[in-house]
């Protein structure tokens, strides 16, 4: 999504090209782009008007007309505004082209939007109910009274700091890319609530935000995927990014490995060491290898633990989950509850099993992701039997496998259906993905030996 640096760059490029130009016609190829209810009136007000100014307020582009109206543009995810000197320069029409403005001198302004989330809103400059109302402070132009209000809001808020600084009703122009960079530079965990952050540290965050945003503006923004400040031109600030979308790379400051989780549905990159975020561990392996025993050892050694089996039981009881399940798998709902016997029987059908896993696993992953975020200040160990099936391996600092030569005997001792469990073990993705694990613990000896192996691992990881 174009953020403040990208939008500012687009405005700077367009201003000398479209200032004082008179609009001859406007073609709207995608009706939902225009928020105004009356499309004919929208066009009539624009046609024959001329452009007095173009500027931005945060991520909003304001095109001020000479007839007491302004055209407000928000690019949303992938919107682009391109200027072309004449018709010969116009590229061949694409499905993503949403609007074309023709000026009386024969030049054009094209709005292109692959995702089609962008908006145009024409309104009077005196509009009392403007979409620009209630926007946050401009980091490059605020007074002491505004900043005092911001501090008070910060100290009352229970939102995490990343959510806080990307809320356009609080602070203008910061999106996902620059939020990660700003928090990294300030050495603040994105999962921390704002009221946990001192006023002095928050002031440092604001100052760092201005430094990063200015540098990004000077380099015409960041072209990560589709952003282009001008037709066939890219921004350059992506070459300066230190943390955003660099999962698995070494931190440029401390050398630790950069991690990534989701926060408020947005990918969030962070350095555990620089931002004081504790490491997380997954425990996985076949049935009967001793995963739960290893988890208990971690618990006894003072670690925060979570078992996915416990998570499943918790989710199964949630009313929202039961309601969603009833929509997709009504046969397993009895008396407004998930009937486990029916579910177990249904899971023997490969097609049903695949569909149910595709339904369940993303919800489990979200639960674990959110748990890790909430407990960022703790070393958390999670038992995830089907780590690779659920695609959770990317959530953790370390993925640890547990294996045992005594697996068959252990299953026999605790489960009458041991043959079925042994058969299940043959089909898990653990064996195909062992090379992806960071460590393997062999559980072939006594409990004391297993505990010593866990302690050795903890020392090795400096936890």
Which structural traits does this protein have?
Helicase, Ruva Protein, domain 3; 17 strands; alpha/beta; 463 residues; 5-stranded parallel beta sheet; N-terminal domain of MutM-like DNA repair proteins; Rossmann fold; 36% helix
Structure description:
A five-stranded parallel β-sheet has the order 12-15-11-16-17. Strands 1-6-7-5 form a four-stranded antiparallel β-sheet, with helices on one face. The longest helix has 25 residues, at 350-374. The chain has helices spanning 4-18, 39-46, 144-156, 161-165, 176-186, 199-218, 291-300, 308-316, 319-328, 340-346, 350-374, 407-414, 418-427, 447-460; strands at 23-28, 51-57, 60-65, 69-74, 79-84, 97-103, 108-113, 119-124, 259-263, 266-270, 280-284, 304-307, 333-334, 337-338, 380-383, 398-403, 439-442. Helix 1 (4-18) runs parallel beside helix 6. With 463 residues, it is an alpha/beta fold. The chain folds into three domains: 4-124, MutM-like, N-terminal (N-terminal domain of MutM-like DNA repair proteins), CATH 3.20.190.10; 144-269, Orthogonal Bundle (Helicase, Ruva Protein, domain 3), CATH 1.10.8; 280-460, Rossmann fold (3-Layer(aba) Sandwich). A hairpin with a 2-residue loop joins strand 13 (333-334) and strand 14.
Topology:
Blueprint: H1 4-18, E1 23-28, H2 39-46, E2 51-57, E3 60-65, E4 69-74, E5 79-84, E6 97-103, E7 108-113, E8 119-124, H3 144-156, H4 161-165, H5 176-186, H6 199-218, E9 259-263, E10 266-270, E11 280-284, H7 291-300, E12 304-307, H8 308-316, H9 319-328, E13 333-334, E14 337-338, H10 340-346, H11 350-374, E15 380-383, E16 398-403, H12 407-414, H13 418-427, E17 439-442, H14 447-460
Parallel strand pairs: 11-15, 11-16, 12-15, 16-17
Antiparallel strand pairs: 1-6, 2-3, 3-4, 4-8, 5-7, 6-7, 9-10, 13-14
Helix pairs in contact: 1-6, 5-6, 12-13
